Amino acid sequence: MKEKVDILAAGGHKWLLNPFGAGLLYVRGEHLANLDPPYINWSNVKPPRQGWYEVLSTIGYTPIKKYEVRTDTAKKYSIPSTNIEVGIPALASSLNYINRIGIKNIEKRILHLTDILIDNLDQNKIELTSPIEKKSNRSGIVSVKTRKDKEILSELKTRKIIVSLSYASGSGGIRVSPHFFNTEEEVLRCCKEINKLVN
Q1: Which of 22, 102, 128, 131 gives 20 to 30 Å between its CA and that of 120?
Q2: pTM of this structure
Q3: Alpha carbons 144 and 150: distance in angstroms, whole number
Q4: How confident is the model over 62-120, as pLDDT tens digits?
Q5: Range(s) within the chain of domains with CATH label 3.90.1150.10
Q6: CA distances from 32 to 7, 19, 26, 27 (A)
Q7: Closest CA to 148 of 106, 187, 198
Q8: CA–CA distance, 116 with 127 (Å, rounded to integer)
Q9: How far is 124 from 146, CA to CA, in rounded Å?
Q10: What is the DSSP string of 106-175?
């Protein structure tokens, strides 16, 4: 890694294009001994010498005993679940895809699309609640507040325009978050429909 990262965690869904349930965790090796896992389970303790399968198929085995937590790998923090197994190869594919396109290219594309949103929404009737004054403070999310956010959200859905509604600490509104795969035409159509519905 170019940067000296101590701990890195990220959910795989949304911006990383993965289904729910799989994410990333990196812990610098020197910290493994000092950070305790929140849960103890079969995948983050030292396995029995003969292996879990052999132990669990032995009549009379009891899991009630003292276990030693692993300190050799970030698996120390894993919480196993069979329902995310499909998400692991999917996340690997998503990350490969994103890396092929390039993070800088994706950032540039997303900010271009949000510029289109900002420039084409009728700001006489719509309040932009995202920070837009400085380009360096912008993200891939543009939140807009109207007098009838829920009604507009519902109408947009019937027109196959998928956005969300989110408020926090008195700010927020209709949340539009285009990704690099969206087209300029789709973003312009979203603006046109919001402008029409706000009247």
Answers
A1: 102
A2: 0.77
A3: 12
A4: 878 888 888 888 788 887 766 667 788 889 999 999 999 999 999 999 999 999 999 99
A5: 103-197
A6: 10, 28, 10, 7
A7: 198
A8: 16
A9: 11
A10: HHHHHHHHHHHHHHHS-TTT-EE-S--SSGGG--S-EEEE-TTHHHHHHHHHHTT---EEEEETTEEEEE
Which residues face 176 on adjacent strands?
142
**Which residue(s) pair with 173 in the sheet?**
166
Picking from 73-82, 138-147, 160-169, which range would have the lowest pLDDT averaged per residue? 73-82
- Write out pLDDT tens, residues 165-179: 998 877 889 999 999
- Which helix (H) or strand (E) element contains residue 192? helix 184-197
Integer Rg of the chain from CA: 23
How many angstroms separate the CA atoms of 60 and 42, rounded? 18
In whole angstroms, give the CA distance from residue 130 to residue 114: 11
CATH class label, 103-197? alpha beta
Helices and strands (H and E) in the chain: how many: 5, 6
Cα angle value 30/21/80 (rounded, 5°): 60
Q: What is the largest CA-CA distance in the chain?
A: 74
Query: How far, in Å, CA of 172 to CA of 153, rounded?
Result: 13
Query: Tokens 């300029």 — which residue?
Result: 184
